[in-house]
Design brief:
71% helix, globular, mainly alpha
Length: 427
């Protein structure tokens, strides 16, 4: 990729379900604490990505390798660390793959819930209201048809269409968020700390998705103070902060787990800061419904791309080497079908969009984005020392402690709140 293509690719990762949950995340933190935390946690996560990528480059140079994936990096780093850790190299390497698969599978579960919730919002307006779980079950066949496409290049048209729909939808949503804002004094600056772990999981889910390495024409341009990663992340963090802040400012305590639920689906757009006076008023009718439909379609077309990563890891690393050629193709499609069905069943079991998103962020991304980079850095720096005052050691420990603390708290709170919601939902 050229520098511009890599920059755009990173920005595209910021537009998705994580962004839709940011206003609710600010409700869980308060607008002031949310702004401060988005900035600090965003910078902390970006710094962890920098450290991880630098450690990968260090290991490649040290062992004269052209490239390393995340699992291989963990295994090799452990073997460069203290001798008592060496027996754990394979175990921790497998853990990396497990959490990467769990994350991408969890994203697909979030997508199932989001699509079903969006379709239900529209369906209840025009048809007989149905349980959201029935909508999830009806999604199984359409999702299967897209997920059976096993060649990545054939998914590119779906990705392009999804990006167009998502960008257009967010532009329209912003027009709702900025119109007729109430007094900011009516909103909490700092929320009760018991809600904060849900904010942590949501912000990790949203921000960590852009921490992806790129195959670039000029890879040296990716890192550095003014590299592609930092420039893209500056835009991403600013966008998330603004979207979450204005979303909570607009809707306050009524802010839903997905901002789409707050849009007036049965009303016309009343007022926006945009100049819409030259447009036929009929075109503005049911605008929020169009946004909901476009976002549902955009996420639907993104489903296969998210699941592709998990299938690629499971299939090529663990299943294909153990199969005979005759059985491989049939079993490959069976694995894909099983993943779709499993994601739908998980969505049916846990139909609360925001809580599921926070759970995935806390449980998986605290490991992949903070804890594992800290462990890798500890081991990579072991042979050359940790510098003056052991600063590199304290840095690595900070990654691990924040990841463990936030991940455990976010996971426990998400599960507890989810359990309460499920008992209420069933009753």
């Amino acid at each position: 990729l050229s520098d511009m293509e890599a920059f755009i690719n990173l920005l595209k990762c910021a537009i998705g379900t994580g962004c839709l949950a940011m206003p609710r995340a600010y409700y869980n933190a308060g607008w002031l604490l949310g702004l401060i935390s988005t900035l600090l946690l965003g910078l902390f996560v970006v710094y962890a990505i920098h450290v991880l990528l630098n450690d990968i480059n260090t290991l490649c140079r040290r062992h004269k390798l052209s490239e390393l994936n995340y699992r291989e990096t963990m295994e090799l780093a452990i073997l460069n660390g203290p001798h008592w850790l060496h027996p754990l190299s394979k175990f921790l390497a497998y853990q990396v793959d497990a959490f990467l698969c769990a994350y991408h599978f969890g994203v697909d579960c979030v997508y199932v819930v989001f699509i079903a919730k969006s379709v239900k919002e529209l369906g209840d307006l025009y048809f007989t209201p149905m349980d959201i779980r029935l909508y999830m079950a009806l999604l199984t066949l359409p999702l299967l048809l897209t997920f059976l496409i096993s060649d990545l290049k054939y998914l590119v048209p779906f990705a392009i269409l999804a990006n167009i729909l998502l960008l257009a939808s967010f532009a329209i949503i912003c027009s709702y968020l900025f119109s007729n804002l109430p007094s900011l004094g009516e909103r909490r600056a700092v929320q009760a700390w018991t809600h904060y772990p849900l904010f942590f999981g949501t912000i990790l889910f949203a921000i960590e998705s852009v921490g992806m390495a790129m195959n670039m024409q000029n890879p040296e341009h990716y890192l550095g103070p003014f590299g592609i990663l930092n420039r893209a992340m500056f835009v991403v963090i600013a966008f998330y902060a603004a979207f979450g802040f204005f979303g909570y400012w607009q809707y306050g305590d009524d802010t839903a787990t997905s901002i789409l639920i707050n849009l007036p689906l049965d009303e016309m757009l009343v007022a926006t800061p945009l100049n819409l006076t030259l447009i036929d008023p009929q075109l503005l009718n049911r605008l929020a419904q169009c946004v909901t439909a476009m976002l549902a379609l955009g996420i639907f077309f993104s489903y296969a791309l998210q699941g592709y990563v998990a299938i690629d890891i499971i299939w090529h690393n663990y299943m294909l080497p153990r199969l005979v050629d005759n059985a491989a193709r049939s079993l490959h499609y069976l694995v894909r079908m099983a993943m779709v069905i499993a994601s739908v069943l998980c969505g049916i079991a846990f139909p609360e969009f925001g809580l599921l998103l926070a759970l995935v962020g806390s449980f998986c991304l605290a490991q992949v984005g903070l804890i594992y980079p800290g462990i890798i850095n500890l081991c990579v720096c072991y042979s050359r020392g940790y510098g003056r005052f052991q600063l590199l050691l304290w840095r690595s420990l900070a990654f691990i402690v924040v990841g463990l603390g936030g991940g455990i708290a976010g996971t426990v709170v998400s599960v507890m709140v989810m359990r309460d919601h499920l008992s209420t939902y069933d009753n």
